[in-house]
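Morning F.,

Quick status update on the modeling queue. The single chain you submitted on Monday has been processed. Sequence for confirmation:
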Amino acid sequence: MNAVPEEDPLRVNLHRVYVWELPVRLAHWLLFFSIVILSATGYYIGNPFFGGGLAMARVREVHLYTSIVFALCVLARVYWAFAGNRYARWSDLIPASRDRLRSLWASLRFYAFLGREPDEYVGHNGLAGLTYAVIFCVYFLMIATGLALYQVYAPVGSPLHAFAFLIPLVDGLQMARLIHHIGMWAILVFAVAHVYFAVLSSTVEHVGIIDSILSGFKYMPRGRRRRI
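Structure tokens below.
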């Protein structure tokens, strides 16, 4: 007879809540892998430390196709912010309500080690939601500057030349390169902080934050009011 698995004592008073829908989870992981590839290839394009013209052409090609995946994921996630469940919507990102502002302040206090108890939430807490809203603005800036830069190297007749109008908007190619470079490092810093806070929350709260981006489910206290 198979033994009945013991229930996790840390989750006895918790129940599972379906939070992250499949499109959100897919977009999350596709963005993660595309950012890794774009960062590596982008660094090489800016600092070609091996190979010659052929290597540069191949790296640019990988960068271009990966950037298409990245841009499509960003657009899909924006669409899902209107079509998804309550935890995927813009109201879960932008602190426009009193409850979200309260969550933002409580989260800031907890992560700064000024508060003992983490904010109780189901989707994003106020700080995480605001951070994601800001990072998506950075994503769009990266897409715009990337298009402005790449159309210079695109072959004659390429549809990418339609984005030449972006160059004066970002004050020329040199400024576009600088913005693109700074944006890459901003995204990488965000990624490191994102992993740190996810591990911290999982360790302290035991709500399955890290598991949830794979399964979609988090664990929440029984009998308490859910916060958006």
